[in-house]
Fold:
Amino acid sequence: MVTVEDGRIVAADNACTLGEQKFLGEPRLKGPIQREGKGWKDITYDEAILRTVEMLRDAERPLLFGWSGTHVEAQCIGVHMAEVLRGVIDNTSSVCHGPSILAIQEVGHPGCTLGQVKNRADLVVYWGCNPIEAHPRHLSRYTRYAEGFFLPNDYLDRTVIVADIRKTETGNIADEFVQVTPGGDYAVLSALRAIVRGKRDIIPRSVAGVPREQLFRIADRCLNAKFIAFYFGLGLTMSRGKYKNVRNAIELVSELNRHTKATISAMRGHYNVYGSNEVNTWMTGYPFGIDFARGIAFYNPGETTAIDVLARRECDACLVVASDPAAHFPRACVEHLADIPTVVIDPYPNATTAFADIQIPVAVTGIDAAGTAYRMDGVPIRMRRVLKTDYPSDEEILGRMYAMLQEDHPP
Amino acid sequence: MRFLMNTGRTIKQGITVECKGSPGYGSETSRCFMHPLDMMEMGVCDGECVRVESTEGAIVLAAAAAESVTPGTIFVPYGPYANHIIPGATRSTGMPDFKSTPVTVEATTDRRKTVYELMEEMGGVAYHC
Structure:
C-alpha cells in the first residue's frame, strides 16, 4: 500500500527495504536536459526526441543498451528500432545472468515457478548468491520462512544449504554453509555430480576447500530430499568458468532428477531483465547481444555484447534505456561512452547522466506507468500504476522515435 | 599485498542505487571489505584509506573489517569504484571478471573520490539536481 500526498509517494507499506526506496525514489529529473559545454540546459520533450533520432540516424553502428528497468511494451519497440537502424541491441543480462542463458542453451533449464518452491521444496540450495541482501523477500515468501501447502511448518520442514566463497548473511541462516575456494565452484559441483553418480571412492580428501565428508553429507541431503530447489547467483556467472559453472550446476540437477525431484533457477536481478530476454527471443530468436548490422539478427556473445562493443570502441552512438552502464561497466567501456554521442532515457539522474548528451526522464513502470514485467521465474505480471504524473512512459517516447525512424525506411 | 577482488551486492548499495550522487551510495560502493588479519598485517585500521591497484589502474577505497571475507581476498560492493579497475575483457562470454580480479592493496593517505569526480575523470560532466 502506498500513501500519496501532493502527487508524491510519501510511504510504501509492506514493501521490502529495496522496494520501499524504489517507490520513494527521489530526486527525479523534472524534464529533458541537454549537455552544453561543462553545464546542462533544459529542453523540451519534442527537441529531445528529435535530437535523439538525428543522433541515431547519423550513426553507422549504434548500440541500444539497457532495457531491464522498463516494461515489455517498450522493449518490443527497442528491438524494432535496432532492426531499422541496423544496430546492436543488448540488455543488462549480458553483465548479469547472460552466462546462465548460454548454459541453458547448451543443456536446458529444469526450472519451476516460485509457487512450486514455496509449496514443495524441502531442500533449498543457494549457490553463489546472497538473497538476504539482494532479494530480501525471497526467503520469507518462498523458502526458509515460508509456509507451503506440503510444508506447513516452514522453518522446521525445510533445509537450507548455502555455498559461497564468503559467509554472507544468507550463509549465517543456513543449516549448512559450504565455503568454496574462489574459482572452485566448477570443481565442487563436479565432485557432487560424481558422488550422486555413485563414485564416492574417487573423491579426494578436499575439493576446492570443501572437505570430502561435507560433500558426502550434502549429496546425501540432496538424495534424501523430496523436492530440491537450487538457486544460483552471480557467484557462478561472474567468476572463473562463468557459463561452464552454471552448466555444471544444471547437470548436477539433472543427475539428481534420476533419484528425486530437483529444479534449478537463476536469482535474476534487475526487475524486468527476464522480460527483456523473453522479448528479444520472441522477436529475434536470441535473448541478448543481438547485432542487426547484416540486416538479419546475429548473436555471438563476446562479440555482439555491450561490454565488448564498447571496449573495442566499435559503436559510434549509444542509446541507454533504463539502466546505468557508467556505474556498472568497466572503465574502458565508460571512457568510450564519453567519446560518442549518448542519450539516456531514465527517470533518475545517474552515473551515465555524466556521459549523456541528452537525458529524457520518463514514468516508472509500476509507479506512474502501467506495463508488463516478468518475475524472476518467468511469470509475466501486469504492473498497474499507483500514481498519475505528467511524465511520458518509455513506450510513448520510444514509439515516437520509432515512428520518425520508420519515415526513413517505409515498409 | 596481493589479493583477489570480489564484487557483489550489499543491502546499502541496493537502497541507494537509484541515487548515484548521494553520499550514501558513494560511501557504500567505495568500501573495501577485508579480513581483520589481513588489515592487521598491512597496518590498516577500519575506515582508513587503501589504494587498490589492478592492471587497469588504481582506486582509493575505505578499508572495512569483515570476518566473513576470506583472507587473501577483498570484497567491494558493485559500483563505479570497483569497475574503475576491472578489465573490460570478457573471455568471449560478454561478461567481465567481476569476481576475480587480481589486485594489490596498500595503505594510503590519499582521499576517496566522489562518484561524480570519478565520472569527470573519465570525461563526463556531473549533473547536480
Summary: Chain A has two domains: 2-18+27-96+271-408, 98-266.
